[in-house]
């Protein structure tokens, strides 16, 4: 079990939602002192994941207010605990969704600590000392080093930040299905948002034929020309959906809102897999017929393990993969969240927490 100090003496400025209006306001709070297994991180950038919005507005009904969101965190280490291995002051590091896991169960021992039953998230979690965890919409973070990763030197820190959640969430299922090393498959990505646009980049980089399935006609040109997708299907176009039936091996569904699975399942070949990472607040209807007539599978998953997150970042460093971002100052968080609700972002907002984007890249 992670060893920490219960002393919450460090004063931190951040931004929080205080109620289900989801409005983000400046908020000052306390963090624990740097324990033996901890590193202290000066936060430079934090992505705005749609999960932050779900939580800020209590759409999943589990929010503990005040909520300091943010789990796409990048910064520089300013302090290192005595038992920390592999990190030193000045390192460029990232923290994603995980704050703590038991370190002892079968999942923790097999580098899948993201499936640990005792997992605590970096915000809206309860740490071992009983404190509520606060995320990356803040100037500083104290993190157990076992949930911290290195950011490759060649990647710009702002555009790399969303890899900490969006990136690993789409990398992990592709890896799990052997799609990192076996090119030439037909991959579908449903929803071209923060997660979706990184999924397109990965699937392309792994050598697959990539089809975007989207509700937004305005995204077709960008999907094909900027992100490199081979095909684009407008999900509201019955003819396009009909033509593409039984054409895809694997589909990643990254959609944040309510939608029907039936037409998506029909796009899969026989024995194809629909992998769900999007988390709409309402339950899906799962129709039996496309499953039984196509021997298809429906699965889901949450982020990825820490070892796999480092592997993903190293891959991004090697092939220069980053996210397409809109960098904002903290006073624009509410505006950004409103635009996220309206599906008006290309493709991830990142908060310039330290206000020094000109100085550090
Ligand atoms: N499983 C995990 O570990 C994990 C990790 C991170 C996030 N998530 C969840 O994944 C989802 C996506 O996150 P994100 O940050 O990528 O969100 P995002 O940037 O808002 O992208 C979601 C995309 O889904 C499409 N969409 C939205 N509402 C829709 C609707 N009602 N019907 C059909 N399509 C719709 C839109 O793409 P088009 O315009 O192309 O249609 C939109 O850009 C969220 O629910 C988030 O909580 C899960
Ligand atoms: Zn996220
Ligand atoms: Zn565990």
What distinguishing features does this structure have?
361 residues, alpha/beta, seven-stranded mixed β-sheet, six-stranded parallel β-sheet, 17 strands, disordered N terminus, binds NADP nicotinamide-adenine-dinucleotide phosphate, binds zinc ion
Q: Your description of this structure?
A:
The structure is a single chain. The chain has 361 residues and is an alpha/beta fold. It contains eleven helices and 17 strands. The strands form four sheets. Strands 3, 4, 5, 8, 9, 16 and 17 form a seven-stranded mixed β-sheet that branches. Strands 12-11-10-13-14-15 form a six-stranded parallel β-sheet, covered by helices on one side. Helix 4 (166-176) crosses helix 5 (194-205). It is globular. The chain starts with 9 loop residues before the first strand and ends in a 9-residue tail after the last strand. NADP nicotinamide-adenine-dinucleotide phosphate binds at residues 49-51, 54, 165-166, 169, 191-196, 214-216, 219, 254-259, 277-279, 302-303, 340, 343. It holds the Pfam family ADH_N.
Assembly state: single chain
Order of helices and strands: EEEHEEEHEEEHHEHEHEHEHEHEHEHE
Residues in β-strands, percent:
25-35%
Q: Report the principal-axis shape.
A: globular
**Class from helix and strand fractions:** alpha/beta
Radius of gyration: 20 Å
Q: Summarize the biggest pleated sheet.
A: 7 strands, mixed
Low-confidence stretches: 1-5, 357-361
Could you give the count of β-strands? Answer: 17
> How many helices?
11
Bound compounds, each kind once, are: NADP nicotinamide-adenine-dinucleotide phosphate, zinc ion
Mean pLDDT score:
96
- End-to-end gap: 35 Å
Please give the share of residues in helix: 10-25%
Protein name: Enoyl reductase (ER) domain-containing protein
GO biological process, one term: lignin biosynthetic process
Organism: Crotalaria pallida (Smooth rattlebox)
Pfam family, one: ADH_N
